[in-house]
Amino acid sequence: MLVYDMPESEYRAHPGLNYSLLKTVIKKSPLHAWHEKLNPKEQTEAMRIGTLTHLAAQDMESYSQTTCRAPVVDRRTKAGKEEWARFCEANEGKTALTAEDDERLVMMGQVIRDTAGPLVDNPFEVVSIVEKGEYSLKGRFDWLGEDYIVDLKTTTDASPDAFAKASWNFGYYMQAGFYCALAEKERCIDHSFFWIVIEKEPPYACVVYKANDELIERGKQDAVRAIQMWLKCSEAGHFNGYMEGEIGLPSWTEKYYV
After folding, report:
1. What domain count does the chain have?
2. Overall pTM surpassing 0.85 (yes/no)
3. Which domain, by its residues, includes 176?
């Protein structure tokens, strides 16, 4: 089932297994994933800015209606407290930003639109729910094209080598594979996966990368493995932590003994 207008709160409340949980199963353990599921993370400042970057890239009108510039006041003083109270009342429900953050987000949104072009001219934040009998899978695509998925990432280094490393370290490859599997289940056609990657500091270098077939296949394989591990632990009522075994030196230490 594809849903084009599901509120974020409703999506988060849905019990389906998502990429974030499956990534934790693989990158850490089922125990860590179980803990995260029981204790959802509060939105961090980085997450908040990331969400607003997506919105600025998609629709500046919605961004402007959702955000506001906070006045520079000394809230330790009576006058400052009163001015801040008036500001909060007048902008209830909006996200207050410093002038610096607002200018940065507006600039990043423009750079993304200039760079990615038609990729962001697609349905935004499309939710996929795939029912699998006793469990379900869910994903939220930043943009969904006719036969491709687009995901936006902010970073400190958008170079090819740095982002390839980040794709592995942060599990982006699994997101690509998992999301393609969801979309293909929904539509019964193969999908490509694109990343729009933008640096968070000037000059806001932005680039589009396409995930190759090997990366997507590896992502699909690890997503399936994570699902199987999670279901096995759920059935047993016990979520494993790290596996016991022998420990050796990391492979990169070999260069010191040549």
Report:
1. 1
2. yes
3. 2-42+111-236
